[in-house]
Amino acid sequence: MKKSIIYLLGIAVVIPAFMSCSDFLDQNPDLRTTLDSEEKIANILVSAYISGAGSYQLVAELSSDNVCDYGITKNYNQFYQDVYEWAEEVTSNNDAPRNIWSSNYNNIANANQALSAIEELGGPTTTRLKASKGEALICRAYSHFVLANMFCMPYNPATAGNCLGIPYMDHAETDLNPRYERGTLQEVYEMIGKDIEAGIPLIDDTAYSVPKYHFNYKAACCFASRYYLFMQDWDNAIKYATMALTSNPSSLLRDYSAIAALPNGTSRHQEYVNSASTANFLLQAATSNSGLLFDWYSTAGRYSHGKLQGIYETVQPKKGGPWGSSVTFKAPHAVLASSGKYVLPRTWRVFQYTDPVAGTGFNKAISVLFTSEEALLNRAEAYIMKMNEDPTALDKALEDINLYAANLFSAGFKSMTEASIIKWATETYPDYSELYVGKTSVSSPQTLNPKKKLHAAPYNTLEEGSPQESMLQALIFMRRYQFLHEGMRWFDTRRFGITVYRYLLDEDAETVVQITDQISDENGTANPRRALQLPADVIAAGLTPNSRK
């Protein structure tokens, strides 16, 4: 009897009534062929990436401060409302937290099956097996990283040892009735780091027919830089970002002129996720509605990125960004009149027909998971955090952010300096949003701005208006612009301790009628709602739920 079981945490395996337990166990897992060759092992790793439901981007974006409530006259449904309101339980949907959980553990299970099969073949004795092992380790690390950042509290070196983690699956499950513990967040991050360090040296881009849909070398290094940035390990964040960027970062910049040359709409989104772009390291094609929400469509227009954020905080802040107010973007944002959305080309929506005659099918969202822009911004942030100990860090950070920013504009850009950034930060600070709390009616929020108070350690110890704090604020603003619609802003509000408000807006899409809710961190302690609740069936199976009060 074969006992090799792929166990998906929290997902019940339904056995047809006519099939005996013995018959079921004698079936090959998932009806797959035995993994007894290099080719089969490489093929199973295709299933170690999100391709069906379970992408985190939509839930993360709707949880962040990149969206507001633009009123009941706009399109929405219960799922979008649940996510926007940080509900304990969220209505079922392809993008729902339950699918994020199950899909990532499914990816982990496939990676573990590949790793187990490699060992059964005698270990990574060939070039292709080494490459497959490296890919499997990075896939396993990445899925655990996503799960930890969606379902656990933000990582902080001082508290991670006391925070609940998620089960770290480091082997192919063979137990018919396995029992899992969550462990600590510190333990999870340590195991992610071990997989990253073991995996990257084995990555070989020549093993892939289409490298941009696999963890190629640049993508793996960019992921490592993100991981170490979140761990506040600045030196390793710099090291891996530099490995991703190579010695010639300019050669990896995005061609925004090519995007701008296309019609303002879907074509620009398609070009942004082009696998031929040197800026794109890793692409994802997921079953998701994020391409609808973050494009010209009216879908979920009630909870969207619209006029309030657009003109006060993100794409065209009235007080200007750290690069000044006279710049002209090569590929500016788009506003769809019927929805009021302020949209940047980030995610391409593709409709996949199951019945072309009937016109039925489902939405696929093509997005970019890792880019050269992220590597530049990751490295710049790490340099900023090293400014007090490294006299060269300021100039290095300025070099990276100026390289990033100059590529965005067709006119009006002047290189940012320490003085110009301090001036911008001083003029836009402080964030007066807290003055609105508890009020039932608020006039047009002229005091909303791109700069936010940072409540999480060590960022809350930086002196307001200092060169380091000003540089960091500029960097956070650039990250918000760069990752708009991609979910990264939620992760940044978590790790920096940025208060997330829920504004109910008037029909003009600009006047705040009421602040209906907020997530804020008091005294540097992260709010429990920074973490999603575990799926109900996972809790029922015995895993400790998150406390969200």
Biggest sheet: strands, sense, closure?
3 strands, antiparallel
Q: What is the tally of beta strands? A: 11
Low-confidence stretches: 1-8, 10-32
Gyration radius, rounded? 23 Å
Q: How far is it from the N-terminal to the C-terminal residue, by CA?
A: 47 Å
Secondary-structure element sequence?
Answer: HHHEHHHHHHHHEHEHEEEEEHHEHHHEEH
Fraction of residues in helices?
25-40%
Shape: globular
Q: Percent of residues in beta strands?
A: 5-15%
**Which structural class fits the helix and strand makeup?**
alpha+beta
Return the average pLDDT rounded to an integer.
Answer: 88
Strands ordered across the widest β-sheet? 2-8-7
Word description of this protein:
- By secondary structure, the chain is α+β, with helices and mostly antiparallel strands.
- It has 19 helices and 11 strands.
- Strands 2-8-7 form a 3-stranded antiparallel β-sheet. The chain has a two-stranded antiparallel sheet with strand order 1-3.
- The longest helix is centred in the N-terminal third of the chain and has 25 residues, at 127-151.
- The termini are far apart.
- The model is unreliable at 1-8 and 10-32 (pLDDT under 50).
Task: Draw up the topology in text.
Layout: H1 21-25, H2 38-44, H3 57-63, E1 68-69, H4 78-84, H5 97-120, H6 127-151, H7 185-199, H8 217-230, H9 234-245, H10 256-260, H11 266-272, E2 280-287, H12 290-293, E3 303-304, H13 307-312, E4 328-329, E5 334-336, E6 341-343, E7 348-355, E8 360-371, H14 372-385, H15 393-406, E9 409-411, H16 418-428, H17 467-482, H18 488-496, E10 500-505, E11 512-519, H19 536-540
Antiparallel strand pairs: 1-3, 2-8, 4-9, 5-6, 7-8, 10-11
Helix pairs in contact: 2-5, 3-18, 5-6, 6-7, 8-9, 8-14, 9-14, 14-15, 14-17, 16-17
